[in-house]
Amino acid sequence: MSENKKLSEKFIEVLQHEGIVTVVSWGVETHVANTWNSYLVITQDERILIPAFGFRKTEKNVDVNPQVKLTLGSKNVIGHNDYPGTGFVVEGTAKYISSGDEYDFMKEKFSWITRVLEITVESANQMI
Questions:
Q1: Which of 49, 98, 101, 110 is most solvent-facing, going by the fewest CB within 10 Å?
Q2: What is the 3-class SS of the chain, one letter each residue?
Q3: Mean pLDDT in the chain?
Q4: Considering the domain boundaries, does residue 4 fall inside one?
Q5: How many structural domains comprise the chain?
Q6: Contact in structure between 123 and 91 (CB atoms under 8 Å)
Q7: pLDDT at 5 (0 to 100)
Q8: Phi, psi of 45 (to 5 degrees)
Q9: Cα atoms in the Cβ-side hemisphere of radius 13 Å centred on 2
Q10: What's the 3-state SS for 49-76?
């Protein structure tokens, strides 16, 4: 794996198992929103695309402050020291996409979306 990669093979493995993803944003107010591992799409350049129908408070926060944190994990993926499960904290910047090729791709995959939350990953640290 390239040294420039921010999303490890273990991170990608976690996405193969269902689990909850928590998105934390702050700007207008601190807000927590949730989605599912299976909804995350990783681009070639390691951005995370998340289908959005709701996420309205997150969007208001991102308009003021694009910094976000995500947590995600799976009990089905072995963590550090053979721990039964692992999780990650992702930090990055967010923006919303409502048109273009990536929006069209996500709309085809998730017909119910109104926008796509795009996360440019700054770090993804395995916690357990």
A1: 101
A2: CCCCCCCCHHHHHHHCCCCEEEEEECCCCCEEEEEEHHHCEECCCCEEEEEECCCHHHHHHHHHCCEEEEEEEECCCCCHHHCCCEEEEEEEEEEEECCCHHHHHHHHHCCCCCEEEEEEEEEEEECC
A3: 96
A4: no
A5: 1
A6: yes
A7: 87
A8: -95, 20
A9: 7
A10: EEEECCCHHHHHHHHHCCEEEEEEEECC
Give the residue numbers spanning the domain of 46: 9-126
| Model confidence, pTM | 0.94
Domain assignment of residue 41, yes or no:
yes
The tokens describing 15, both together, are 């996405």
Residue burial 102-123, b: 16+ Cβ < 10 Å; e: rest: ebeebbeebeebebbbbbbbee
Q: Which two tokens stand for residue 47?
A: 């951005």
For the domain that residue 66 is a member of, what is the CATH number?
2.30.110.10
In a domain, 1, yes or no: no
**How does pLDDT run across 23-43, given as a tens digit for each residue?**
999 999 999 999 999 999 999
